[in-house]
Design brief:
By secondary structure, the chain is an all-alpha fold. The chain contains nine helices and no strands. Helix 1 crosses helix 3 (52-64), helix 4 runs parallel beside helix 6 (103-115) and helix 7 crosses helix 9 (157-175). The radius of gyration is 24 Å and the shape is elongated. The relative contact order is 0.09.
């Protein structure tokens, strides 16, 4: 009688204990797409069913080889978010979601905060999207829409108020109304 082993029916892959090499190869494949933080890579390896000790070894090896570097990843990600027109609050929130935390990351954020002008970024993104707001005839509703838009992009309330006041004064001066 032929005794074949039945295939596993669970959703987790059949990964044996001590399968560090498979974990490392999977980590390297994950990293070919884009930079990942240490915690993102760890989470993805856990989702694939690897043992904690294999994950730890694989992630450590990736760090040793400089394939993952949270400071570099943070810098790249922050610059992407700034180019996309996000404010500092949103950047901080997204960094935390990616597991980019700690003093080194806070230092990077502090350096960038002093280098960027949030109002300038907000003005740029507002100009880019102004046509969508100008369709609203009611000025109060328009102001509310602009506020919600900029707030969702992570701009501070102070910056938003300044941008709305600047926008309204330019609208009033262009139309001759007060």
């Amino acid at each position: 009688m032929n005794h074949k082993q039945q295939p596993k029916t669970s959703n987790t892959p059949n990964i044996s204990v001590g399968d560090y090499r498979k974990a490392l190869n999977t980590a390297l494949r994950i990293l070919t797409g884009r930079d990942h933080s240490n915690s993102e890579l760890t989470r993805k390896l856990k989702q694939r069913g690897f043992k904690p000790e294999d994950i730890e070894k694989a992630v450590s090896e990736c760090e040793r080889l400089d394939y993952i570097n949270d400071e570099r990843t943070a810098g790249v990600y922050i610059n992407q978010m700034i180019r996309k027109g996000h404010g500092l609050n949103r950047i901080r929130h997204e960094m935390n979601k990616k597991g980019l935390k700690g003093q080194r990351i806070q230092n990077i954020l502090s350096e960038i905060e002093s280098d960027i002008d949030e109002a300038e970024g907000g003005e740029r993104i507002l100009e880019k999207n102004i046509k969508r707001f100008e369709r609203e005839g009611d000025l109060k509703k328009r102001r509310d829409k602009i506020y919600r838009f900029l707030y969702a992009r992570g701009f501070s309330q102070d910056t938003i108020r300044k941008l709305i006041n600047k926008y309204e004064s330019s609208v009033y001066s262009a139309t001759g109304h007060k």
